[in-house]
Each structure stands twice: as C-alpha cells, then as structure tokens.
Amino acid sequence: MSVQTISRPITYDDLAGLPDDGKRYELIDGVVDVAAPPQDPHQYALLELATTLNPHVKAGRLGRLWIAPFDVHLSPLNGVQPDLLFVRRDRLHIAERRYVAGPPDLVVEILSPGSYNRDKVVKAQLYARFRVPEYWQVDTNARTVRVFALKDGRYEAVPRGDDGRPWSLVLSDLIVDEAGLFLDRE
Q: Could you tell me the CATH superfamily of domain 12-181?
C-alpha cells in the first residue's frame, strides 16, 4: 500500500471531499486546523447568544443566522466555521446548502482555551482580510463580549452603549445583555 502525499496547499474542495468524522476542520491559507470539541461554558454562551439574536433577526426580517458547525467558504484556501454567523437579507444569495459562499456580515467566535490565539488573532485577521463588517469575541473566562467593526481594513472596537452593554452596528437596535450569556460559576 502506498501513501499519497499532497505537495501543494490544501484547498476547500480537498477538505470538503473528506469523509465526515465528526471533527471540526477549518482551513486558513491552505493549512488545516482541527478544533477541539467545545466545552460546557462555550456551548452555554453559544446557545444563549443564538436564542437572543435569532428572535431579533426574525422579528426585523434582517437576514439569517447559522451556528457551528456550518462552513464559510471565503476562498479556495480558506474555509472556516465561526461559532455563529449572520448574513443580511439582501445578501442571502451567498447562502448555499452546505456553506456560505463569501464573507458573512457578522461572525462570532467564542474564545476557548484551545482556540484562544487562533480565534482572537489569526481568524480576526482572516475576517478583516475578507472584509467581514463585524466581528465579535465572546470570552467565557472574562465574561465579556467585544464587538469590532471593520474600518480601513482593520477591526476597531465598537464603544459600549451608555449603559455599558455591547451593541451591534450590523444588527440594528440590538444591545447584548452579557450577564445572561455566561454559565454561573458555583
């Protein structure tokens, strides 16, 4: 039996052609990364965030939300699975059955110990490069939500509202109540 090696960057099509083994794969600049399974604080924050955002999106007929695992196909060498993503109604044509083909309007990454640097730095740079207008970092340890807006090719923190809560530029009139997003520590 011979072993076949690939001497070129891995492409999204290569990755999509692999059998489903239940793991979460992402492709950044032709390099495959396997994400560790999320832990309880991560999943709790994701569920609370999705149940907060979805009624707001539906009531305003703003577009559509997806939660991981769902691919975002940015280019032949870049395919990621943000924890949560949003596409505005007028851009839903980029949504396909298996993935969103192009940059969403908003991505959310819930920072985990195993993905902290990748989510906070590497993926933030990737999202900026592909012009994702808004990027959120949800830190379950610090119990914070930081919202960033793309300006001149870089993310800048969106100032919190007068009440100290984060708010979205993309999801109009949405203010996030951080207190309810995080698993109570006992």
A: tt1808, chain A (3.90.1570.10)
